[in-house]
Amino acid sequence: MIGNSVYSPSDQSLSSPNPNLCITVGSMEEEQMVVEGEEEEEEEEELPLPIDDPADLGIDLEDDCDGLLQIETGIDEDAPIAHSAPAPGMEFESYDDAYSYYNSYARELGFAIRIKSSWTKRNSKEKRGAVLCCNCEGFKMVKEANTTTTSRRKETRTGCQAMIRLKLIDFDRWKVDQVKLDHNHSFDPERAHNSKSHKTSSASANTKLQQQPPLHVQVRTINLYRALAVPHGTSCSSSYSSTSPGGDHSLSSRPLLPPGGFSFLQDFFFRIQLTSPNFLYLMDLTDDGSLRNVFWIDPRARAAYSHFGDVVLFDTTCLSNSYQLPLVSFVGIDHHGDSILLGCALLAHQTFETYLWLFRAWLTCMLGRPPQTFITQQCKAMRAAVSEVFPRAHHRLSLTHVLHNIFQSVVQLQDSELFRMALNRVVYGCLKVEEFETAWEEMIIRFGLTNHETIHHVFQDRELWAPVYLKDTFLAGALTFRLGDVAAPFIFSGYVHEHTSLREFLEGYQSFLDKKYTRQALCDSESSKFIPELKTTHPYESQMAKVFTVEIFRRFQDEVSAMTSCFGITQVHSNGSASSYVVKEREGEKVRDFEVIYETSAEAQVRCFCVCGGFSFNGYQCRHVLLLLSHNGLQEVPPQYILQRWRKDVKRLYVADFGSGCVDIMNQDQWYEHLHRRAMQVVEQGMRSKEHCRVAWEALQSCLESI
């Protein structure tokens, strides 16, 4: 197996199996390289550096991309780069990459480097190994020393032993085989800056800046050069923690990964990337090179986001319940109303800076396309980061977790069925803001919670979680969608528990995704073939049976069936094209009034809004609106209320199609990504029917013959 990638490649990615620079930690078992028929030759001159110096590569995402992950732009010689020290086991895509890394490390510390020796295969110019050393290595020969004295040049060689030895492995990768870090002299940054190796590096970097591509190409070729390998055994002095009653997350002293976890995580990423080139992962490192946070996302999730990116839930159940695994996940809702994974991360801390990095990393992967609604748990740090990265998104709190926090905080009432019923009645039963606030006040007085700190904090945030305030927010069923519970994270329920280790999680991760994708495919198949049994004779039911997926149709069918409990439509106000109606509904022995606004435009388009907020909450119209539509003579649900995200007749391509389609003709990685993406779109379209398959096959055959 080839070495394991440590930082994510750039989009296009950030997804290419051959990024400009790939620094890796190989297996812990050292492989002895046998060199046959090779001879060592001394090199007097330093080899020129490559034009692309990854240490100085970066982008600045401006204007409407403010929320994206910021990566340094240009060359700033004074800015600290904080490259981690070289270590045995590091691997690079090429010799030039290895040279660039060691040269950048040297420039940061304040010394220069040169090539002490290199060797090639006999009768060939192919380089097989090299030793890069400090420029102060060795001593001048007597003749050289006399010449130096005559020209009055200061003697710089001190016999310094600092060096790294490189070996070519697997014919295309370079591995650090031996390292000596100690110097026997002081560093002279100014003199080192003027050395041959660093002058060449700066010239290469300036050339690169002059050739910098447009913004859309930069976004698609982000290079995270600073994400260097962490030597085996290095741990992070960071932590994660649980949620306090007030909703803030405190810190506990605990490393991000267990001993040996970094190597295992790295192997996991590289194995996936070998079979899935668009797989992406990003690592956040401390100044000393320790792993602080890591984020990853598979290509299907990035593609699915284009279909279901309107509502995203951020699940931190593992953190808030102090699981062994500091896992968080981005979750979407697919066309079957089921959960889909849109990215995962392991976090060392629960601070504003951590969430800021993570949200920017995730948004960068989605090329700056924020969700319409973003749902999280209660946390001040998280809330501030959401405001910073997703300023235009509707930030809401998970109602499930809010209610859970309430029950956890009122210890004396946890077993009180009366309190549970009262809370549910206040949260779900109030239709207007004034009604909710009055009922809440009465409830806390009744149960003696007037001065309860958690209850106070929860009520302060009521506009972010109480349904009565969310009627202008599209939630796609997430209001009653179980984001999580005490036992396990919502999407990983039955898979991740309190004592799940990193190894157990990663070993079952791909199997978990395969089951999710298989389930989705089976639901697609069922929806395309299934002829549902109708419960009524209403035309709306038969109309939606042909349109909605099975699960969404069943939910809609419940609304149609419930129309029988509604009656007494009364028009209470009219103002030109807009009218206000009251629809009565019988709930047990009680009758409630629901106000519905009905409006017709000049184009005869109908708009409806019910005080219950059914369409915003669920993505399909409620029983009250359906009854009014029928009352006004509409035989079908208006098309604007049939969302594409729920339709079963939409063929969804799970091949990411981000960017403008422009390809850097000098970048072979972009050739591959562009061709692969277009080819997969042909394959997806070809699966629609036998005729589509025939046309796609003939087109591919024609293309192949032309090539």
UniProtKB/TrEMBL annotation:
Residues 1-21, 200-213 have a biased composition (Polar residues). InterPro entries: FAR1_DNA_bnd_dom (IPR004330), FHY3/FAR1 (IPR031052), MULE_transposase_dom (IPR018289), Znf_PMZ (IPR006564), Znf_SWIM (IPR007527). The keyword Metal-binding applies. It is found in: Nucleus. Residues 28-51 have a biased composition (Acidic residues). SMART domains: ZnF_PMZ (SM00575). This is Protein FAR1-RELATED SEQUENCE. The gene is LOC104703446.
